[in-house]
Q: What sequence folds into this?
């Protein structure tokens, strides 16, 4: 199947136009707004369509009709159940409206994300779902120019103007940090993914500092360790914290995967959780409740977020109006891994 | 951004042709094989391209050049790390060759998978990666007709003719079942995903029966419980087995997620693993080694499979030849959850 053979085997809009002796615009019109075309022309075009076996949904229709019923989404990773669950609900809701989801996974790489956004637009996605606000303004300009409605999920920041269906990462972590501080913790460390190009992680780190300030403590006391998301990296980061700041009594991780790594490292070091050290997570994915001890974390309504995001995009494609941003509530799940600070 | 506005805002190949006063075929040639077009024509076309702000990679180029540098893949679920890991490696290798991966997740639904395959082809995917062999012959005919090279992964079955980069699910599970039987187990149950449209799960179940036959035992003795993949469903299936067949001494699960559920149910029922009952998994994803007790399972070379699958598809796009199938070896990971059968 060489390029040439493929070219021969797939008839194009231009082939139809040529055979029917009309312009390509007329072919498009016949396929998409047949009532706007005279009967004779329509019959001639449809005859050519059938004769050539032209399949209007092979790209050409996308160009002609600007309706592909395909929605694109770029997520930072497939390796975290948080996105798998949310996007599954997103896809189910899209499916109920006859839309197909095409997905790309950027591996938290801003450049790769841009390439994937451009590919999805080039492949005719009607609309896009993106995770978080952080990206080059040039990308948003590109999407506006192309007229591709774009919705942000996983973040809700009242200071941002773009439409989002998400939650306030900073406020959610602030609430958990208040509970940590209320248990007598002062020497708090934070294990986070790199915060550059990741407003969710950055917001969560800021939330811890906010709570320190509220409690009359110095936010600079929070030891921050940045490492890529992972169980192994969480383990290493935990060891680093305990080596550099052995007085730490609570380690707040910006997601559950890092926190599970921290729990493993604690066990390996012979530290009891929460008696010797408290550990908290964020997301409330399945492993949070499976961990031993069970992980205290922030529950994120992934499935509801996915479902509502799909509804919002379906609305904008139907009605041409992108609605207001929607903030979803998060909840603290108090389990076993947070306890009172040990005595100094 | 109504359909009309979008139509107005995005210039088409036909717009360029009209402004340059040439055929659309000439525009395509200018963009894709400029040396095949006279200098004057080329300059006129490129002037029109620039004037209109025509972006050749918006679908039109796909139609014109049949080269989108986009590879499609349909996986059964995002909610299992096994696919996340394998596809991440697949994507990384594609990226090294300038290809972008667009993904769809079928939720183990054959009809949805077909819809997604058609959408990926309609959106111009140069080639496809599909998981397992099982699907309607009509879909394979459709892909052949459209000239879209398609590679199977996650399965390798010498009896099949389609090109695959995968492993022999049946032989891999047979090897593990031999070890289970060698530990004195005879009353073996199997917890599996529905085997219809899932040759991987079906092969693994058959592998257990094969080992029973080899050992001179009746393969019909294996109690089979089908349930969707999940930790919760694995728990329920374990309870069902123990309620219906309390003599069971080993439960072989066709993936690690089900097996982790089985371990949880065993603990909840006060059964010690492996003293009272042995549990095995398949895949060797991260939770297998994190489980307590650590899970005996079959290690699948996800990342290598993803990398090799990408190389194979890149080759076929370059050289027009789909190579031979490639079988990758699996390995048994003996951990703590398999032990000798308890005395009757």
A:
């Amino acid at each position: 199947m060489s390029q040439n053979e493929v070219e021969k085997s797939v008839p194009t809009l231009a082939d139809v136009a040529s055979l029917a002796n009309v312009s390509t615009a007329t072919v498009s019109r016949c396929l998409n707004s047949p009532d706007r075309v005279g009967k004779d022309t329509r019959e001639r075009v449809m005859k050519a369509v059938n004769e050539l076996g032209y399949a209007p949904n092979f790209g050409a229709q996308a160009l002609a009709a600007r309706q592909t019923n395909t929605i694109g989404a770029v997520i930072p990773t497939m390796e975290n159940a948080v996105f798998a669950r949310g996007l599954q609900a997103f896809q189910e809701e899209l499916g109920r409206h006859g839309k197909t989801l095409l997905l790309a996974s950027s591996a938290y790489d801003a450049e790769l994300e841009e390439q994937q956004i451009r590919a999805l637009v080039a492949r005719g996605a009607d609309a896009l779902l993106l995770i978080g606000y952080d990206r080059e303004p040039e990308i948003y300009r590109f999407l506006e120019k192309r007229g591709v409605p774009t919705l942000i999920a996983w973040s809700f920041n009242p200071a941002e103007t773009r439409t989002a269906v998400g939650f306030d990462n900073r406020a959610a972590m602030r609430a958990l940090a208040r509970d940590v501080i209320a248990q007598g913790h002062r020497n708090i460390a934070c294990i986070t993914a790199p915060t550059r190009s990741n407003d969710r992680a950055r917001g969560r780190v800021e939330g811890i500092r906010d709570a320190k300030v509220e409690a009359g403590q110095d936010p600079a006391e929070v030891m921050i360790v940045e490492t890529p998301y992972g169980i192994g990296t969480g383990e290493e980061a935990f060891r680093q914290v305990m080596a550099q700041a052995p007085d730490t009594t609570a380690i707040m991780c910006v997601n559950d995967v890092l926190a599970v790594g921290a729990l493993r490292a604690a066990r390996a070091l012979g530290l009891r959780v929460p008696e010797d050290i408290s550990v908290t997570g964020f997301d409330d994915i399945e492993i949070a409740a499976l961990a031993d001890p069970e992980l205290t974390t922030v529950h994120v309504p992934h499935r509801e977020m996915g479902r509502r995001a799909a509804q919002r995009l379906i609305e904008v494609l139907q009605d041409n109006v992108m609605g207001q941003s929607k903030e979803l509530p998060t909840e603290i799940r108090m389990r076993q891994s947070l306890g009172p600070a040990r005595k100094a």
